[in-house]
Amino acid sequence: MKRRLPWLIALFWAAVVVLLALDWRASTPHDRFAEPPPLALSNGPAADAGHCSLAPATPSSR
Amino acid sequence: MAGTLNPSFRAAAVQTTGLGLRRLTGSLLICLGLAGFAAITWLVGWRQGLLWLIGLGYGVLLAAAAFGFTTGWRVWITRRDPKGFCAQFVGIAVAMLISVPLLAAQPMLQGADGPLSISLLVGAFVFGAAMQVADGCGSGTLYKAGLGHPVSLAVLPAFVFGSFLGAAQIPAWLSLGALPPVNLVQRLGAPETLVVQLSALALLAALLWRFRGTQPSRWRGQAVWWAAVGLGLLAAANLAVAGQPWGIVYGLGLWGAKIVQALGIDLSHNAFWGLPAQQAQLHATVLADNTSVTDLGLLLGALVAASWKGKAGPAVGLPARQWLASVIAGLLLGYSSRLAFGCNIGAYFSGIATGSLHGWVWFACAFAGSLVGVRLRHRLGMAD
Question: Which of helix, strand or coil describes residue B117?
């Protein structure tokens, strides 16, 4: 039998918000003066640690 | 007469109220999305705020058009319906037409360049099979979880843990054998890359169309084409803003690693999570990670679109065996996507759109896996 579980969405989003708040509290304080510019285009490489396609030590030759 | 009209009036009133409630919920969620943009921009900067908006756009387009990578492949395999598959090519082509010249002009931008490894072959094949059993790929699981699909809500935590585990073991898998990434933009140049790749996509689309079945398509109307164009444009914007292409599973793995770390497990000695860049990311807020922010935006965007259309929290009725199979498939999706250097988004969509050869290898292996996955799905009694 098919059943709708509307409370599940609320539970999921509550969990997301709680986890984000806990993460914010446990993380190193954000340095506003070290923020990257709004666009990476013309301003240098990506500012974070990775993309799904990147190997731990990406070989340099292409 | 009033007595005979009353039920129809009542039905119309209920329908109008339902529609009004849906629109109200949708509007509130849009406000929440904009509030999220303001908060993220205030807390972590303009770049992350813009990426949140791009993520919202992904979620809206995917959910509004029911744009499915998994379903697109499955309905081609089972009933030769080419529309969803071809729409994927349109999205990739639009992203490619903007991304390839950008990558050629701005070498600091990063393509989705994965190595050509044994793990890529194994990972993509397993991912292709698992996504058919879980009925969702990287983007599919995320957007359906966002709109409250119970199966995807069960699959997502397993996907997150699998991504964490897969990343943790990537170095061991790479030791089995790997060639360096090959990016066609650097090897051939931008015009040649566009000619070669667009021709290949056009040829494949022509073949899919040539051998199409006679049944009406699963996707009615033009929405899926517009969604494909929109996704392509957003993916190009993702590259311009983040400096890297659209991806999904790195963010999910990071969430898993953060949870594991919060449980007291030290990851500083792990061959992947112990690297200085990963350690810095693990100690920073998740909102500072490009992929995580677009993933979160995607989740909310899907809920906005589904609420607007009255399709949030769909009803499901699966036997326990199928629930279990979906969750196991979710774990495999996460693990295999890290082995394969991306899922259908990071490797297939973004890989091909940014000229990475590993995107094509991923596509071939994952499609072969999907042929097996569709059989498995039927064996488990799951519908198309």
Answer: strand
User: B178 to chain A: nearest residue by CA?
Assistant: A59
**Which residue of A9, A31, A51, A62 is the best one to mutate when testing the B interface, meaning the one whose CB has the most B CBs within 10 A?**
A51
Question: Taking CB atoms and an 8 Å limit, are A32 and B281 in contact across chains?
Answer: no
Residues B316, A38: C-beta atoms closer than 8 Å:
no
Q: What ipTM is given for this predicted complex?
A: 0.88
pLDDT tens string B82-115: 999 999 999 999 999 999 999 999 988 999 999 9
Contact A37 B258 (CB under 8 A): no
> Looking at residue A48, what is its pLDDT?
64
Q: Which of B50, B275, B341 sits opposite A53 (nearest CB)?
A: B341
Q: Kindly report, residue by residue over B280-327, the tens digit of the pLDDT.
A: 999 999 999 999 999 999 999 999 999 998 888 888 877 888 889 999
H or E element at residue B345: none
